[in-house]
Amino acid sequence: MERLQKVMAHAGIASRRKSEELIVKGHVRVNGKLVTELGVQVGNSDKVEVDGVPIDREEPIYFLLNKPRGMISAVSDDKDRRVVTDLFTHVEQRIYPVGRLDYDTTGALILTNDGELSQMLMHPKFHIDKTYVAKVEGMIDRRSLNKLENGITIEGKKTSPAKAKILSADNDKKMSMVELTIHEGKNQQVKKMFRAIGYPVQKLKRETYGTLNLNGLRPGEWRELKSFEVNQLRNLANESKKELN
Protein backbone atom coordinates (compact mmCIF):
# COMPACT_ATOMS: atom_id res chain seq x y z
CA MET A 1 0.00 0.00 0.00
CA GLU A 2 1.11 3.56 -0.74
CA ARG A 3 -0.15 6.99 0.21
CA LEU A 4 -2.64 8.34 -2.31
CA GLN A 5 -0.65 11.51 -3.01
CA LYS A 6 2.47 9.46 -3.74
CA VAL A 7 0.58 7.31 -6.24
CA MET A 8 -0.74 10.46 -7.93
CA ALA A 9 2.74 11.96 -8.10
CA HIS A 10 4.18 8.77 -9.59
CA ALA A 11 1.44 8.83 -12.22
CA GLY A 12 2.51 12.33 -13.26
CA ILE A 13 -0.66 14.08 -12.08
CA ALA A 14 1.22 16.70 -10.07
CA SER A 15 3.90 17.04 -7.42
CA ARG A 16 3.19 15.31 -4.13
CA ARG A 17 2.35 18.62 -2.44
CA LYS A 18 0.04 19.68 -5.29
CA SER A 19 -1.57 16.23 -5.21
CA GLU A 20 -2.32 16.78 -1.53
CA GLU A 21 -4.07 20.02 -2.42
CA LEU A 22 -6.17 18.24 -5.07
CA ILE A 23 -7.21 15.66 -2.48
CA VAL A 24 -8.18 18.22 0.16
CA LYS A 25 -10.16 20.28 -2.38
CA GLY A 26 -12.27 17.28 -3.40
CA HIS A 27 -10.88 16.44 -6.83
CA VAL A 28 -10.01 12.79 -6.08
CA ARG A 29 -12.06 9.61 -5.77
CA VAL A 30 -10.87 6.14 -4.77
CA ASN A 31 -13.06 3.27 -5.93
CA GLY A 32 -15.81 5.79 -6.58
CA LYS A 33 -15.67 7.33 -3.10
CA LEU A 34 -14.69 10.97 -2.67
CA VAL A 35 -11.53 11.39 -0.60
CA THR A 36 -10.76 14.74 1.05
CA GLU A 37 -8.46 13.73 3.88
CA LEU A 38 -4.74 13.00 3.68
CA GLY A 39 -3.30 9.71 4.86
CA VAL A 40 -5.42 7.42 2.69
CA GLN A 41 -3.44 4.48 1.31
CA VAL A 42 -4.21 2.62 -1.90
CA GLY A 43 -3.06 -0.64 -3.43
CA ASN A 44 -2.50 -1.80 -6.98
CA SER A 45 -6.12 -2.92 -7.39
CA ASP A 46 -7.67 0.38 -6.25
CA LYS A 47 -9.18 2.69 -8.90
CA VAL A 48 -8.07 6.30 -8.49
CA GLU A 49 -9.77 9.14 -10.38
CA VAL A 50 -8.88 12.83 -10.55
CA ASP A 51 -11.79 15.01 -11.68
CA GLY A 52 -13.46 11.89 -13.04
CA VAL A 53 -10.46 10.77 -15.11
CA PRO A 54 -8.76 7.49 -14.07
CA ILE A 55 -5.04 7.97 -13.51
CA ASP A 56 -2.66 5.93 -15.62
CA ARG A 57 -1.04 3.57 -13.14
CA GLU A 58 2.30 2.14 -14.15
CA GLU A 59 2.42 -1.58 -14.70
CA PRO A 60 4.42 -3.13 -11.85
CA ILE A 61 7.86 -4.32 -12.85
CA TYR A 62 10.48 -6.19 -10.82
CA PHE A 63 14.23 -6.68 -11.22
CA LEU A 64 16.97 -8.55 -9.39
CA LEU A 65 20.35 -6.83 -9.57
CA ASN A 66 23.75 -8.15 -8.59
CA LYS A 67 24.84 -4.84 -7.12
CA PRO A 68 28.50 -4.07 -7.78
CA ARG A 69 30.82 -2.42 -5.31
CA GLY A 70 30.98 1.36 -5.46
CA MET A 71 27.33 2.18 -6.18
CA ILE A 72 24.70 3.82 -4.00
CA SER A 73 21.41 2.00 -3.38
CA ALA A 74 19.28 4.99 -4.31
CA VAL A 75 17.74 6.80 -7.28
CA SER A 76 19.92 9.90 -6.82
CA ASP A 77 22.91 11.09 -4.81
CA ASP A 78 23.76 14.62 -3.68
CA LYS A 79 27.47 13.84 -4.08
CA ASP A 80 26.92 12.82 -7.71
CA ARG A 81 28.06 9.25 -7.10
CA ARG A 82 26.77 6.42 -9.25
CA VAL A 83 23.43 4.98 -8.15
CA VAL A 84 21.92 1.59 -8.94
CA THR A 85 19.22 3.06 -11.18
CA ASP A 86 22.00 4.24 -13.53
CA LEU A 87 22.05 0.61 -14.71
CA PHE A 88 18.38 0.82 -15.75
CA THR A 89 18.28 3.82 -18.07
CA HIS A 90 16.31 1.76 -20.59
CA VAL A 91 13.43 1.25 -18.15
CA GLU A 92 10.63 3.77 -18.60
CA GLN A 93 8.99 3.06 -15.25
CA ARG A 94 10.28 4.88 -12.19
CA ILE A 95 11.83 2.06 -10.21
CA TYR A 96 13.63 2.25 -6.87
CA PRO A 97 15.63 -0.19 -4.73
CA VAL A 98 13.95 -2.20 -2.00
CA GLY A 99 16.01 -1.37 1.06
CA ARG A 100 19.69 -0.75 0.58
CA LEU A 101 23.13 -2.24 0.40
CA ASP A 102 26.10 -0.17 1.50
CA TYR A 103 28.39 1.51 -1.01
CA ASP A 104 31.01 -1.22 -0.59
CA THR A 105 28.57 -4.12 -0.21
CA THR A 106 27.66 -6.25 -3.21
CA GLY A 107 24.97 -8.73 -4.10
CA ALA A 108 21.24 -9.28 -4.39
CA LEU A 109 19.13 -6.13 -4.61
CA ILE A 110 15.52 -5.89 -5.76
CA LEU A 111 14.31 -2.87 -7.71
CA THR A 112 10.64 -2.22 -8.46
CA ASN A 113 7.90 0.37 -8.81
CA ASP A 114 5.54 -1.75 -6.69
CA GLY A 115 5.29 0.23 -3.48
CA GLU A 116 3.02 -2.30 -1.81
CA LEU A 117 5.47 -5.18 -2.24
CA SER A 118 8.40 -2.94 -1.37
CA GLN A 119 6.78 -2.01 1.93
CA MET A 120 6.05 -5.65 2.72
CA LEU A 121 9.66 -6.66 2.10
CA MET A 122 11.13 -3.84 4.18
CA HIS A 123 8.68 -3.75 7.10
CA PRO A 124 10.08 -5.39 10.29
CA LYS A 125 6.91 -7.44 10.83
CA PHE A 126 7.49 -9.34 7.58
CA HIS A 127 10.37 -11.78 8.04
CA ILE A 128 12.20 -12.42 4.78
CA ASP A 129 15.47 -14.35 5.09
CA LYS A 130 18.55 -12.79 3.51
CA THR A 131 21.85 -14.66 3.33
CA TYR A 132 25.22 -12.88 3.34
CA VAL A 133 28.77 -14.08 2.87
CA ALA A 134 31.26 -12.04 4.88
CA LYS A 135 35.03 -12.00 4.78
CA VAL A 136 36.06 -11.09 8.31
CA GLU A 137 39.31 -10.38 10.09
CA GLY A 138 40.49 -13.13 12.42
CA MET A 139 39.97 -16.85 12.86
CA ILE A 140 36.36 -17.01 13.92
CA ASP A 141 35.18 -19.92 16.06
CA ARG A 142 31.91 -21.72 16.67
CA ARG A 143 31.44 -20.05 20.03
CA SER A 144 31.42 -16.65 18.36
CA LEU A 145 28.92 -17.83 15.78
CA ASN A 146 26.65 -19.02 18.56
CA LYS A 147 26.48 -15.45 19.81
CA LEU A 148 25.25 -14.32 16.39
CA GLU A 149 22.72 -17.12 16.25
CA ASN A 150 21.32 -16.41 19.71
CA GLY A 151 21.13 -12.67 19.13
CA ILE A 152 23.45 -9.95 20.35
CA THR A 153 22.81 -6.45 21.64
CA ILE A 154 23.64 -3.64 19.23
CA GLU A 155 22.96 -0.03 20.15
CA GLY A 156 20.70 -1.11 22.97
CA LYS A 157 18.61 -3.59 20.97
CA LYS A 158 19.00 -7.33 20.64
CA THR A 159 19.11 -8.83 17.17
CA SER A 160 16.77 -11.65 16.22
CA PRO A 161 18.10 -15.23 16.06
CA ALA A 162 20.24 -15.89 13.00
CA LYS A 163 21.88 -18.80 11.20
CA ALA A 164 25.65 -18.86 10.77
CA LYS A 165 28.34 -21.20 9.53
CA ILE A 166 32.04 -21.01 8.75
CA LEU A 167 32.76 -21.51 5.05
CA SER A 168 36.56 -21.33 5.24
CA ALA A 169 39.43 -20.02 7.31
CA ASP A 170 42.95 -18.91 6.35
CA ASN A 171 45.37 -19.10 9.25
CA ASP A 172 48.17 -17.41 7.25
CA LYS A 173 46.05 -14.38 6.33
CA LYS A 174 44.15 -14.46 9.62
CA MET A 175 40.75 -14.21 7.97
CA SER A 176 37.54 -16.23 7.78
CA MET A 177 34.63 -16.56 5.36
CA VAL A 178 31.27 -16.79 7.12
CA GLU A 179 27.73 -17.29 5.88
CA LEU A 180 25.08 -15.46 7.87
CA THR A 181 21.30 -15.58 7.37
CA ILE A 182 19.10 -12.94 9.00
CA HIS A 183 15.61 -11.59 8.38
CA GLU A 184 16.19 -8.09 9.73
CA GLY A 185 17.50 -5.24 7.61
CA LYS A 186 18.71 -2.49 9.90
CA ASN A 187 21.40 -0.10 8.73
CA GLN A 188 24.77 -1.91 8.45
CA GLN A 189 23.40 -4.67 10.66
CA VAL A 190 25.65 -7.48 9.43
CA LYS A 191 28.79 -5.37 9.80
CA LYS A 192 27.72 -4.27 13.27
CA MET A 193 26.98 -7.85 14.33
CA PHE A 194 30.44 -9.08 13.37
CA ARG A 195 32.10 -6.01 14.86
CA ALA A 196 30.28 -6.63 18.14
CA ILE A 197 31.87 -10.06 18.49
CA GLY A 198 35.34 -8.81 17.49
CA TYR A 199 35.55 -9.77 13.80
CA PRO A 200 35.41 -6.68 11.54
CA VAL A 201 34.06 -7.23 8.04
CA GLN A 202 36.46 -6.75 5.14
CA LYS A 203 34.07 -7.69 2.33
CA LEU A 204 30.34 -8.37 2.30
CA LYS A 205 28.00 -9.83 -0.30
CA ARG A 206 24.30 -10.62 -0.09
CA GLU A 207 23.91 -13.97 -1.82
CA THR A 208 20.16 -14.53 -1.51
CA TYR A 209 16.99 -12.55 -0.87
CA GLY A 210 14.14 -14.84 0.11
CA THR A 211 13.94 -17.45 -2.66
CA LEU A 212 16.04 -15.37 -5.06
CA ASN A 213 19.71 -16.03 -5.76
CA LEU A 214 22.35 -14.56 -8.05
CA ASN A 215 22.90 -17.59 -10.26
CA GLY A 216 24.02 -16.44 -13.70
CA LEU A 217 24.37 -12.77 -12.73
CA ARG A 218 27.75 -11.09 -12.72
CA PRO A 219 28.31 -7.87 -10.74
CA GLY A 220 26.34 -5.10 -12.44
CA GLU A 221 24.05 -7.53 -14.27
CA TRP A 222 20.32 -7.83 -13.64
CA ARG A 223 17.30 -9.80 -14.76
CA GLU A 224 13.56 -9.26 -14.62
CA LEU A 225 11.76 -11.37 -12.04
CA LYS A 226 9.25 -13.93 -13.23
CA SER A 227 5.69 -13.71 -11.96
CA PHE A 228 6.04 -16.85 -9.84
CA GLU A 229 9.12 -15.35 -8.13
CA VAL A 230 7.17 -12.22 -7.22
CA ASN A 231 4.38 -14.40 -5.86
CA GLN A 232 6.90 -16.38 -3.82
CA LEU A 233 8.13 -13.15 -2.19
CA ARG A 234 4.56 -12.13 -1.36
CA ASN A 235 3.83 -15.55 0.07
CA LEU A 236 6.97 -15.52 2.20
CA ALA A 237 6.00 -12.15 3.65
CA ASN A 238 2.41 -13.18 4.31
CA GLU A 239 3.42 -16.48 5.91
CA SER A 240 5.92 -14.81 8.19
CA LYS A 241 3.26 -12.32 9.28
CA LYS A 242 0.87 -15.18 10.13
CA GLU A 243 3.54 -16.83 12.27
CA LEU A 244 3.86 -13.68 14.34
CA ASN A 245 0.11 -13.32 14.93
Automatic annotation (TrEMBL):
GO terms for biological process: enzyme-directed rRNA pseudouridine synthesis. Its EC number is 5.4.99.-. Keywords: Isomerase, RNA-binding. GO terms for molecular function: RNA binding; rRNA pseudouridine synthase activity. InterPro entries: PsdUridine_s_RsuA/RluB/E/F_cat, PsdUridine_synth_cat_dom_sf, PsdUridine_synth_RsuA/RluA, PsdUridine_synth_RsuA/RluB/E/F, PsdUridine_synth_RsuA/RluB_CS, RsuA_PseudoU_synthase, S4_RNA-bd, S4_RNA-bd_sf. It is an enzyme of class 5 (isomerase). GO terms for cellular component: cytosol. Gene3D superfamilies: Alpha-L RNA-binding motif, Pseudouridine synthase I, catalytic domain, N-terminal subdomain, RNA-binding S4 domain. Residues 2-59 form the RNA-binding S4 domain. Belongs to the pseudouridine synthase RsuA family. This is Pseudouridine synthase. It comes from Carnobacterium iners.
